[in-house]
Design goal:
The structure holds two protein chains of two kinds.
Chain A: H1 3-19, H2 21-45, H3 50-67, H4 73-101, H5 111-114, H6 125-158, H7 164-203, H8 208-213, H9 215-251, H10 253-256
Chain B: H1 2-5, H2 8-29, E1 39-54, E2 60-72, E3 81-89, E4 103-112, E5 115-123, H3 126-171, H4 177-197, H5 201-227, H6 245-278, H7 284-312, H8 315-323, H9 328-370
Classes of the chains: A mainly alpha, B alpha+beta.
Chain lengths: ~260, ~375
């Protein structure tokens, strides 16, 4: 048995033990996300336009993460709509930023790994960099949207008379509670992968200016900062979508309970 | 809402941030004097030739030769113009296509026979980072207020600690990297939670739960590593390795999962404290069950957050492997296996913390009732 199978089995058993049916669905969503991510790579390799792949696979991953993570449709539908809007907004931002930063492809630090490879593959690495930046931020956006939307559903359940203004206010208050820990999740998630690169930079005494203009560093920083921005936009957006959908949330209350 | 939201303070804050932002952007787009490397601005470009290239895997691309007229922005030849050559391709993996107005770094700048010559060595990117950083700070402060400020502060402090720890690691030549980053993980957790939650019993409980959860997960994973003899782990496929790969990989994994475990622990502990406040007579069993219920609904999305961060990083590399005629299996093994292991270990940490944190919170809050 390989280590991946072993760890996967341990994770599956733990998830089912801790979460029961929900744990099993969560594990399944992880497998499906992996499948779709790999499928995205294959599609791009077969010259399907990367932007098309990004949008379709992005929506699929959002749907899997949100609808398989929670059963309450009032929460999930709101979260899904909100995250779709955020996806469109950051897509525009990423296009501008990536165009400006030109961090596609590989840096000089990658030269070792690229030895003996043919790197001129006829697929625009620029478009691929847009794809990777978006996909890496989707998990965080989905998670934030679900947190806000489930909190607001609960508030609407107990106080259906709340005005839209109060609802947005509550959404922002929940956002303030989760923003600190969400930022830390993203920070550590990205910096964990950064460790080897940073040891390289500091070990070879790269100057501050060199690091700030280094292709790989800038690419990683853009990924982190775009994820931060994505999460930040998600908070008011989810609250806003909830005000538009409040009727169906309140109406569905007895049915889903 | 709008009237309440736009208080005088906020308007001043917005004006202040705007001024700082514009100032920072102006500075980074005119900071050439602070660089030792020569920087030049492209003032005109001409494409000289186009060439079709095809490799043995039938990948078709085009290469172009570009002649750039650039003006030096710093150094002793400041203001002088010269012509440099640049090659770029359609896919632009390591080359760049420059446009008029771009600023580029030059190397081997010298005067030969009264004419300046140089090679292009990369694009100036610092303005982009400063712009995005500014955008994040602006949105954080305007949308999240005080808690946004503390969230940002904790990220900045953690980044500084991270750099200090790497310096220590380099001094020791990576001898004790696991020990070093384990200690760092504990400090990281303490500081982040202190800034996010403030010093309280709740914060101490979250802190203890996070540390226990993370390290137990690592321990369990080490057992699986031993049991499967680390078959199928290709440490040689790790990127940017300058030290012994295995401990480095484990340190990366430890740090990577820390934030998510912290996120989950603080959510569970917060709910338990709220329950305790609503009903001081709540039993340990009730607390444990509610903790588990909160935990099991957030663990799935959290694992997916980390999974996407770890795996998407390997996207470009995997694409290259497939286009170089490698099989799908080999592509996976060489690019994605380490990311998968990282996601799985983090996943185990996230799942294990649910009962651990719930138990911990239940014991802590339950005891007080009996007293």
């Amino acid at each position: 048995m390989t280590t991946i199978t072993g760890l996967g089995l341990v994770l599956l058993i733990l998830m089912v033990l801790v979460g029961g049916k929900q744990g099993w669905t969560a594990f399944l969503s992880l497998l499906l996300n992996f499948g779709f991510l790999y499928f995205a790579i294959i599609l791009v390799a077969f010259h399907v336009p990367p932007l098309f792949v990004t949008v379709t696979i992005g929506i699929t991953i959002l749907a899997i993460t949100i609808f398989m993570g929670e059963d309450d449709l009032r929460t999930t539908v709101t979260a899904f709509y909100a995250s779709l809007i955020v996806l469109c907004l950051i897509l525009v931002l990423i296009f501008i930023v990536e165009h400006w930063a030109m961090v596609q492809g590989f840096g000089t630090e990658d030269s070792d790994e690229l030895e003996g490879m043919s790197i001129l593959i006829g697929i625009s690495y620029f478009k691929v960099s847009v794809t990777t930046t978006i996909l890496s931020s989707l998990g965080a956006i989905a998670e934030a949207a679900m947190a806000i939307s489930s909190g607001l559903t609960e508030i609407l359940e107990n106080h259906p008379e709340r005005t839209n203004r109060q609802l947005i206010h509550s959404g922002m208050a929940i956002g303030q509670q989760i923003i600190g820990t969400t930022f830390n999740t993203l920070f550590f998630g990205f910096f964990g992968g950064f460790l080897a690169l940073f040891i390289w930079f500091l070990g070879l005494h790269y100057s501050f200016g060199t690091i700030m203009n280094n292709k790989i560093f800038v690419a990683e920083m853009i990924e982190i900062l775009i994820s931060f921005i994505g999460v930040l936009i998600t908070v008011p957006m989810t609250a806003w979508v909830m005000t538009k959908r409040r009727k169906s949330v309140v109406d569905n209350y007895p049915k889903t309970k | 809402m709008i009237k309440q939201y736009w208080t005088k303070q906020r308007i001043w804050l917005l004006i202040f941030l705007m001024v700082v932002g514009i100032g920072a952007l102006l500075f980074t787009s005119h900071n050439e004097q602070f660089y030792q490397q020569p920087i030049a601005k492209v003032i005109s470009k001409k494409t000289l030739s186009k060439q079709r290239v095809k490799d043995q895997f039938d990948n078709v691309d085009h290469q172009y030769n570009q002649q750039l007229q650039v003006k030096l922005m710093n150094g002793k030849y400041r203001g002088q113009k010269l012509t440099v050559q640049n090659t770029y391709s359609d896919s632009q993996p390591m080359d760049q296509r420059y446009r008029v107005g771009n600023e580029v770094f030059l190397t081997q700048l010298r005067k030969r026979g009264g004419k300046l010559t140089a090679n292009v060595n990369g694009y100036k990117r610092d303005t982009v980072i400063v712009f995005l950083l500014w955008l994040v700070v602006l949105m954080l402060l305007l949308l999240m207020g005080r808690s946004g400020m503390f969230a940002f502060l904790s990220v900045v402090i953690n980044a500084l600690l991270f750099i200090i720890a790497i310096e220590i690691d380099l001094k020791q030549n990576g001898q004790h990297i696991m020990l070093l980053f384990s200690v760092l993980a504990i400090i990281f957790t303490f500081i982040s939670l202190l800034l996010v939650l403030g010093f309280s019993k709740r914060m101490l409980a979250t802190f203890a739960a996070t540390v226990i959860g993370t390290f137990v997960a690592l321990g369990v994973s080490m057992l699986v590593f031993m049991w499967t003899h680390e078959r199928g782990i290709y440490y040689e496929s790790m990127e940017y390795v300058t030290q012994v790969p295995r401990p480095l990989f484990l340190a990366e994994t430890l740090l990577g999962s820390l934030g998510a475990v912290m996120d989950e622990s603080s959510d569970i502990i917060a709910t338990l404290f709220e329950l305790k406040q609503l009903n001081p007579a709540v039993t340990r069993k009730q607390l444990f069950i509610s903790g588990r219920n909160v935990g099991k609904s957030i663990m799935g999305p959290l694992i997916n957050v980390l999974f996407l961060i770890f795996m998407v990083d390997t996207f470009t590399g995997s694409l290259l492997y497939i286009k170089n005629g490698n099989s799908w299996g080999y592509t996976y093994a060489m690019n994605m296996s380490l990311g998968t292991i990282q996601s799985l270990i983090s996943g185990i940490g996230i799942v294990l913390s649910v009962p651990l944190v719930s138990l911990f919170g239940a014991l802590l809050l339950g005891k007080k009732v009996q007293r």
